[in-house]
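Input for the complex:
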Amino acid sequence: MSKKTGISTRHLNSINNLSNREIETIFEIAQSYLDKLPDKLRSYRIGRSTDIASDFILASLFYEPSTRTRLSFESAMLRLGGDVITSADPATSSAAKGESLADAVRVIANYADLMVIRHPRDGAARLAAEYSPIPVINGGDGSHEHPTQTLCDLFTLKKKNKELRNLKIAISGDLRGSRTIHSFVYALARFGARIVPMPAPGMELPHHVYRRLREEFSCKFDSADGSIGALYHTPVEPHQPALFSGPDFELSFESSSSAMEKARKQKISAVYVTRFQKERWLQKQQEYPRIDAKFLKDPKYSRASVLHPLPRVGELDASVDSDSRAAYFEQAAYGVPVRMALISLLLGLHEGETLASFEGGFEKSSLVLYDQPLTTGLRCANPNCIVHEEKEAPYVRNKFHLLTHDKAAAGRLRCFYCESEMDAFVIANRKNKWYTTDTFALAGITNQNVRDFLFFADESDAIGSGFHTRKNFAAKHSRMAAGQS
Amino acid sequence: MSKKTGISTRHLNSINNLSNREIETIFEIAQSYLDKLPDKLRSYRIGRSTDIASDFILASLFYEPSTRTRLSFESAMLRLGGDVITSADPATSSAAKGESLADAVRVIANYADLMVIRHPRDGAARLAAEYSPIPVINGGDGSHEHPTQTLCDLFTLKKKNKELRNLKIAISGDLRGSRTIHSFVYALARFGARIVPMPAPGMELPHHVYRRLREEFSCKFDSADGSIGALYHTPVEPHQPALFSGPDFELSFESSSSAMEKARKQKISAVYVTRFQKERWLQKQQEYPRIDAKFLKDPKYSRASVLHPLPRVGELDASVDSDSRAAYFEQAAYGVPVRMALISLLLGLHEGETLASFEGGFEKSSLVLYDQPLTTGLRCANPNCIVHEEKEAPYVRNKFHLLTHDKAAAGRLRCFYCESEMDAFVIANRKNKWYTTDTFALAGITNQNVRDFLFFADESDAIGSGFHTRKNFAAKHSRMAAGQS
Amino acid sequence: MSKKTGISTRHLNSINNLSNREIETIFEIAQSYLDKLPDKLRSYRIGRSTDIASDFILASLFYEPSTRTRLSFESAMLRLGGDVITSADPATSSAAKGESLADAVRVIANYADLMVIRHPRDGAARLAAEYSPIPVINGGDGSHEHPTQTLCDLFTLKKKNKELRNLKIAISGDLRGSRTIHSFVYALARFGARIVPMPAPGMELPHHVYRRLREEFSCKFDSADGSIGALYHTPVEPHQPALFSGPDFELSFESSSSAMEKARKQKISAVYVTRFQKERWLQKQQEYPRIDAKFLKDPKYSRASVLHPLPRVGELDASVDSDSRAAYFEQAAYGVPVRMALISLLLGLHEGETLASFEGGFEKSSLVLYDQPLTTGLRCANPNCIVHEEKEAPYVRNKFHLLTHDKAAAGRLRCFYCESEMDAFVIANRKNKWYTTDTFALAGITNQNVRDFLFFADESDAIGSGFHTRKNFAAKHSRMAAGQS
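Predicted:
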């Protein structure tokens, strides 16, 4: 990591690494590539319209199967005049010899000018970015996120609807396992769209995604909207400026009950369908929603575009293909201009239009960061998190962001890598050797004193490490955080 | 398929999709690339001589192992100044997630300007072409065809022999399983060459290929030519103009018995050797012809070039490599200039010299097309046909061309995808609910009334679907076809 | 092989195929690419600085997993403005159909202008070169050699140390199985560096490598240097001019005992760490040296760079990464400029600076070459040699170079392909039908009479082939060789 010192770059791990304004910039440039097309090509195909990336190489580093993400990235790079090197099969790469991702990234960073990574582990792209002096784009990491797919999804919605605010988007299928969905709902929330979850049984959005929508992106759950929960933006809570600086969000909408009633009756703008992510589940899926011509006959879908990140494996009937509402092949096609725009911006090839670059590649978080060796105390509870990959053990740490948004509730930890959350753990103070199970105490931890604290999975771990209980620990810290100490 | 409406393009699925004149055009351009070579290179190597494809991308979509076909296509595209995206391993593509070919093609068509496809199923390239707005080249589909290999084979023969007419070509090995052979014999027949089949035991040319040679390409079987059948062109039957518009064929040769006698004594011009296609057979091969120095000592091979599409696995002895008759590495080398010519023509990069483009990518067939849903009635009898691939079920139909060439014989059906043929089935009339097992009745079906008919595999199926026999049905239709009704 | 006649090219199979002067030339050009870098890039990254290879294609032909070798070659070719075709997975290439390497090479040589090959068999690259009219670069063949890795290693050492002469290099780990080590120690010896072997138990340098260092590169073993043997150059024996023409070696150093004493006390200049080559061993490794912060605290390593060809799998602790002595990522980064230099020289793209080209691609050896069919007599004793690969049987022969350096010792045979050595075998004379087990007799064999001799593995083989003993055969030939006959 010492290699990175002073290197200013920009990575894309989560859709939340891009501001609304930056997303708009990407779309403007993507559109400019589409506008250059000769008339004879269909509206969503693109030729080689530029040579601006001719001095650059993209590395495709795929540890999981892919066709469209990899090929659309490669096509985008070639359409920009650049070149590509590809490692698409872990069985024929040095991963087969047992190499860590952290090492692979540090090596390949010397062979290319930016890289796109796909990996079966949640948080892998964040780890890769930690070790890369060149921009790392997350091409899908476990069931965490897939931000460039979301860019294509949003671009498609925008082409169909002019703006995203107040759209009502139904999301159907494996909302838990689909990384695509997770990036997508954050973006929808941030741009003021309404989300109608239609999960397969047992495949609801993960709790931490729900909570983040509610707490960070100010969404409200509306249980009165039929049998399906609806989430609404509400302006009653403060926004995080970095994420909401775009013009769209500033125009926040009314949240009176009459507006809500109107929203409930609003037709669905788009149905976003996802396949069962069989590679993320141990069991087979029994029941799964299937979108077909019959489903779409319901009047509330009469103007709904049908989107799907593809591939599909039965959940979206081929009979829909000839329906004018089907937008999924167009959506796939936008992968090229949108990724052209992203790549060229990350490489700094557009004068005037840029993505900010940061030391270490990410905007500094306002959240307190806990950072301890992997051998010490609490580890991420998500078994698929990259921290549990044996090969990466020397290169990861127990790192969590402290979530203390909601002063009325106990705090939580968000894994630095996979962004899943934990709300039950033990907080121990290394100075006085006391521990507490009351996660209110998080509120008393700051970037200045965070090194004094250790987190444990349970009391026996804390006791085994020489800590003991203190009755009023939590209360005191809670008071401290409230400025009452 | 609605996506295709109005799109005029050109696909290459079968060698029979190219007219003789178009094949000549490809060869002229291939030769022009060879002519540009600096003297210091060997006659069949080629450098980057042009940049005409610099705005274009070729997608290599290989669902089966390949080295020479894929690499020679990619080399050809790069030599033209173009770029390449590659999906060479189904295990690392979205196929591993269960994606259909029809979907993959519709997506990838947005990332590239033309694509080459290899697939284990017969007819896969035809299916792909149905869904692609960009040119699809068949890089080998099951045991159906491999037309670009045939272009290289013909080009090699032409370089060695000046013209193809009246050459006598022995074809040895797995004539049944080798897609290369199937494309090759059609082309030989069309250019007036004589074919001497030398099959491994049980590996004769498929019946439908024999019949097509005889009926469509006017070949005659000569049982008197030693122990091996020889096929001769004869001008007594009408030619299908689209296939025989080239100058070569117009000069049809005599078929008198003295000419035949002469032909029998003619030395072999080339021996075309093929490997046992183990991936197409369930059983192991016991006995297989082996071409070696001793075999070639027979005087009738004294001037025979030895060709092989490669790879070889024992059927062509290494001792032949140093024989001046060995032409197989030269044949492999021509893969680049021939494919450069094909690609550049399909992309329309040569002024004056073009391949015609058609709506849907294929010249309209003069044969009547039967087209019913996959769930209705007769399905293709070839178990390896793409229609039997579960993943493609929503994207294929029961489609057959009606063969009624030979008025003296009963009719047959040719599968729209894999081009294998069926000659025993049941024809049912939806209007009067009668059915017949007499395939003479095909002759009464036209593009106007074809929707009134259903085909079934056997009588019980027809009866199960509510049809019943009618005695004189066949006779009537037969008479109708003959204009006597 | 007839194809090659008269073709003058240059292959790189072993580091010993390059003279010291040529290695220096490669480094000068590599440095010139680094010098062109804009200041804002780190010292070891490289942009597209040239377009000199824009007319050329590199073929990557990898039969074993690789990331850094393949991707750095491809990046190098792209940075030179060239193009790349890749076959990275034997399971999806024609090798899966049973094709021989000899055939694959002859085909692919028509699709590219040079090729890099990786293969699990020792000697595979030598075989490939035999059949290729275009330059073949050995990208690692079994446990034989990996010469381009050594170029990167040497370049790194040179950047750190200005010159290689008199450096003291510790090599740690699997010295037997690591092809990287084998190329490396030859180069170190040739440039006058001292080698301190630190093998894992049972993983010493192969005997033939030791012997070659001693006999061909004039190294001496110093058992007094602690518990680890040290090898020193000594100028008492004649050097092979082709390998030692560089300026470095001419300045040979003193070998007096005081100089040796000084050398013993000299600090280690670099520790070269290698992983356990699990793919080369049947058994698991129990004990393996591990280089970590503690190891490097020993004062003798205080100024030692730490090198590793990567990937690492535990033998080099991540704690070293932040140590200023860690040079392995820099070493990996040099892969691009060094390979750019090699490729551009092999393609003849530098006026004035060239690598010599030879008929057949290799400088003619001064050693006598024994060359018999694979079915006749002695075969290479190395079970992993390419001669034992069934698919290659028609394309390899029993070929050995005769080693008679050391007049005081019996002679040995060096396999033409894998360069492993045999020192017990039977020499038979076809003219008089006598045989001997005394390998002194090798000394009597010359390029003129070598066809009169056959080698056998043991006496029963010789007898079985109709030979019988002759008492004074060996003595006579030995005398002959000494000029006393």
